[in-house]
Structures are given as structure tokens and as C-alpha cells.
Amino acid sequence: MIDEKMRAATRQGDISLEALSLQHEVEQFYYREALLLDRHEFNDWFDLLDEDIRYFMPIRTNRTRREQKKLEYTKDNEFAHFDDDLTMMRGRQRKLMSDVGWSENPASRTRHIVGNVLIEEELSASELSVVSSFIVYRNRLERQVDIFAGERLDVLRRAENELGFKIAKRTIHIDQSTILSNNLSLFF
Amino acid sequence: MTVEKTKTRLNIGADPREFQKRPSWTNEDILALLDEEDGTLDPRIYTDEDLYRLEQERVFGRAWILLGHETHVPKPGDFLTTYMGEDPVILVRQKDKSLRVFLNQCPHRGMRICRTDGGNAKSFTCSYHGWAYDLGGNLINVPYESEAFCSDFNKSEWGPTHARVETYKGLVFANWDKNAPTLLEYLSDATYYMDHMLDRTPAGTEVIGGMQKWVIPCNWKFAAEQFCSDMYHAGTVSHLSGIEAGLPEGMELSDTKIPTVGYQFRAKWGGHGTGFYVGEPGMMLAIMGPKVTEYWTDSEAANRAEKHLGSAERARQLMVQHMTVFPTCSFLPGINTVRTWQPRGPHETEIWAFTVVDADAPEEVKEEYRRQTLRTFSAGGVFEQDDGENWVEIQSVLRGHQARKRRFNIQMGKGRSGVGNKDFPGSIGYVYNEEAARGLYRQWIRMMTEPSWETLGP
Predict the structure, then answer these.
(1) What is the ipTM of this complex?
(2) Do A182 and B118 touch (CB under 8 A)?
(3) Which of B73, B180, B320, B393 is most buried, by CB atoms within 10 Å?
(4) Which of A178, A180, A186, A187 to probe the B interface (max B CBs under 10 A)?
(5) pLDDT band at B19 (very low <50, low <70, confident <90, very high)
(6) What are residue B67's phi and psi, to 5 degrees?
(7) Is A73 strand, coil or helix?
(8) A2-174 CATH fold
(9) In this predicted model, what pLDDT tens digit does every residue of B34-90 receive, in sequence order?
């Protein structure tokens, strides 16, 4: 049943009930995920990351148009802002929840706005590749403000949890080359 | 100049004599900013606009500045755009494999010649009026030169300003000042400690691709000083949660052993400094994980490093080393992050960071270095996140007049360093120390007050 719905939803222009319902389900997943982050329910958010997660944010660079395709993003064997597996993410979780995790204690106030959600492809009976855009606003301590925008390329996997999916892969293309902030102590 | 020293006295609010003072800084004023004997430092070195302007000229105009690694630009035509102080420069690999560095500014009307971060080029053409430069930074083409220019116009006189460029074991440095000492003289007796990262194997190091850049609203000297001289913050409270993030599941922070044995070194000349733990691998494990720690302390490569560097103390027992080459080149041997602190006004710094690895390390070790360094020392790094937090808050507090008036305490280890350690040459003291910080600020004061290399030079 699940795969029928997913197959239907990824056919371009399909407005069948299955397609609409899956689109709705994916969007609801993102809205609830954003709420977990913004309400600091981090343990629940980390539970959405699947065992084989790759949480990846390459560095973005300024290139000539001629070289842009080849060189704009750092590659798999190059440096990145994030390139974490689940063990590394669990470490970040411990830091975030720690009493001595100064970069988030006191905590930042964030707002994750997720939109332009496109179900791109059904990768298997249980996996979808989904593209979305985000704007993340962060306000911190007395008056620090950071605004991040970018694109998320996710692989969502069907899961027996409240939200219906886990994140199997997240690639974040942030719309900054020099990160205009004193750190990236938040999640996207 | 009357400034409150270490002892607390009642403030008079505003000193009437300050109102009469001219705004610029005399040598006498600058010399008073640091009192090595007392161990106090005037925080205006982090905030004053006039000092910042002088610093661009006197420090960044004369010091050797780290631009990157040779393997950032391996092939002829490969280039990287970066900065020396606030001046944008282009580093280019020449056809004969040498390196050139020139100001990223077209002398015609001042436009940036190259507006990308790097790549491979045959020439550089200014996008304003089309003046074109070859890889060596020579002006080779001026549109409508014969029709439009004057008879005494000579292209050879109108290339961009060039800098000297020299390398030390893979790291590329540049200097604007023709009278400055060579890079090797400038590095002084600090090279011994740089080699712990740069010279573990005859193959040398190579860079892991990519330059990570981010902005911290603080003065560059907070960062430079910390990497020069501050193991104290790492061994006490700043990075406790970073250590927690690296613990294996089930292990508590209270189970970890923070090392207590270690040393700090202050270069005999130049303001360079370093510190490190010896023997206890707990901190390195928390930062780099077991694979890299084993590679560093107990592997074929560690054996070879021991032979190459000449002792087990240097090659495998020394750990979590921090180091600054004055003014803005900092790195962590063993963790292998390298960065330039790019000044952006007195209140802001850009960090430009990259990671190096032994060129002949196994691929899986290179990969582990890449992953662990970005996990710990980067904008999102579980250690580095908290550094940004500290420096930003200090800079913000220093907006206050009273806050700027109170001199800082840099007394730790005063009078306790000396030559004679059996394993580590040069001036050595206990690992928790501010001797290297005093050295860094001394060099800053000297460059800010001594006009000639005749007195300033090593």
C-alpha cells in the first residue's frame, strides 16, 4: 500500500489522492521535525535519524561559471561543515544536552521554516528522495541574530514511529560560502 | 597614560586628563599596553580603531602571513585568493612550479582582479576595463592601448603590488616587506615544534581539499593568543562538552582523565608559542578518536615519525599540541587543523581553516582525520563552537568603558619558564601558562613601536 502511494506521488503532475496524501504526509513530517528542533525537544529529533544516517553539509565556494559545476561544492573526500554518521551525531546530542555545552547553554532561539517540498523520486518501496528549502532564524543571548537559508536533499525512510519517517540521509546546501556566524551549533 | 593596574581601586568615572589627550598613539602609549613584569595587559589592544589601523601597517605590512598549503595549488595556473591583513591577494602556481603572490587589485582604478575563491587560470582579466595580467602578475594587455593611452604609458610599471612568498615544509607564507628577515629566520626556534605536524615523514604533508571560512565578531588576537598559549581553557572548563561529545557510549565525563603533564614553549624571538600534553592520551582520544590516536602514538607511521623527529617524546608522547606562528597562523599538531585569523576590523575576525595529513598516510587514516577534524575543530566543531562563544562575549563586554579600563591578568607562570628541559629545547614552562602569550604580545608591541628591522629583527 505504501509503495503504491509513493509510486503515484512521484509521477509528475499526478494529483491522485495517493499523491496528495503522501505530499501532505511528507510536509507534516517536516513541520513536526522543525517544531522538535525549535522547541528544543532534541532527544526526539535525534531519534528521527536512522542508523545509517549521513548528515552532510559541504562547503560552498565562489567559482567562475566555467568551473562552477566541477568545483562549487567540496567533494566527499574534502573538508565539509558537517559530515556525520550516527555515532558522531549522538556525540553532538550529548554536547547539546550538556550543562557545560556553552555554545547552546543558554540555548539559542531558532525558527526553522521549511517549504518548496518536492518529492523527487521513489528510491525503493520504503525510501523517498525529497528536496526542500529552508530558512533558519537564530537569535542568541542578548542580541545575536543569524539567518541561514538553503536546500535540503533528504532520503526519508518509512518508519514505525509517530511521524511515519526517519531521515536516512540529509545533504544540506547552505546559501553562504563564508559562514556569517560565530559557529554552527544548530541543526538544519 | 594612567590606567588601572591589577589592584582594585575606586574608579573616578572619567579621568579629566584623558579629555586633554590627542587621539593618536605614541610609542610610549603603546609600550605601556603590556607590562610583562607585572603581568598585565591593556584590553584596548582588542578594541581601539586607531591601534587597528596602525596594526594593519606595522604588523600585517611586515610579518609573514600564512596563505595556505602548497597542495592547495599543485598545478601551473592553480590559484587561491586570500588575504594578508585586510589586503586581498592572489597566490598562483607558476609554469616553473614556483609560487607568486600579488595584491588582488588592478592598479588602474583599484578593482579586484579576481573575484573567485580559486581554480585554474591562464590569466586574470579585470572585469572593470579589461586590463589583463599573466600568472606572474604582469600586466600584459590593456584594451585600446595604442589608440587611447598616452605615449609614456608603460605596461611593465602597472602590474599589481607583489609580495615575497616562501614556504616552510608545505605551508605557504607571504610578506610585503622587502627588508623583513627570511621566513626561516622569522620562524626562529619555533620550527622544532612546527615539525611535529609538518615533518613526521619524508613525504611531508598534503592538504585535505577545501577551505572553511566563518566569521567571529571578536579581535583576531583572542584567537591567536589562545592557540599560542592557552591549554588552560581546554584543561579546565571551555571544552568539557566537546570532550563529552567524543566519549564512547556509556562513558561519563567524570570517567575521563584530563592530562596534567605538559609544557609550554615561548620562541626566543618572534612571538611564536606552543603548548602540549605529554603521555596521557585521554584528551586526544576525545578529540580525534581511537584510529587517529593509534596512528599518532602506536603505529608504523609513529615508529617512522620517532626516527624522523629523533625522539619518542616528540613523535608519539606529545599530544593535543596548540601553536601560533605570529601573528595569525595557528594550528594543532595531531589534530592537524591549520588556520589563518583574518582581521576584519578590531571587532571581527574571519577564520580560514584547512586540515593537513601526512602525504603517505593510509587512505582510511586521511579519511578519519577529515571526519574528526570537521567534527571537532570547525564552525560546527564540538570543540570550536565554544571558542566562538567566549571570544564574542569578551569583545561585547569590552564595549564598556570601565571594562576597557581594567587591565587583564596575564601573570600565569611569570618568571617560571626557562631553558633546560631534557626533552624540549628553548624556553619551556608548565603547560598551563601565559609565558607564550606574553611573548606574542611583546612581539606585537615591538612591531607596533620599532620602525626598523635593524632593532626588530632576530
Answers:
(1) 0.94
(2) no
(3) B320
(4) A178
(5) low
(6) -105, -30
(7) strand
(8) Nuclear Transport Factor 2; Chain: A, (3.10.450)
(9) 999 999 999 999 999 999 999 999 999 999 999 999 999 999 999 999 999 999 999
